[in-house]
Design brief:
By secondary structure, the chain is of the alpha+beta class. It is built from two helices and seven strands.
Length: 86
């Protein structure tokens, strides 16, 4: 599953049938119909087990990586996908 956010470091997860969540955080604003970055984009690769064990709030769909201890270690974690394919 791939999710993108430009306004907050969180995403709504629509299901649990995936191996990894690729989360793209691209902080930006829209001015006059144009998306303008306000910080560097970051890409995180979270295993499904980590995502599912993270509290989701009342809706049970709101995923916030900040609830994961050491969430930074998942930044650019593409090697996890390669290892899973081996």
């Amino acid at each position: 599953e791939v999710k993108h956010s430009r306004s907050g470091f969180k995403a709504n997860i629509s299901g649990s049938d995936y191996d990894f969540l690729v989360f793209v955080f691209a902080p930006s604003v829209v001015e006059n119909g144009i998306v303008k970055p306000i910080a560097k984009r970051k890409i995180f690769v979270f295993p499904q087990s980590i995502v599912e064990s993270t509290p989701k709030g009342k809706t049970q769909t709101n995923f916030n990586p900040k609830y994961i201890h050491d969430f930074e270690k998942y930044e650019n974690g593409y090697s996890q996908i390669l290892e899973a394919l081996s």
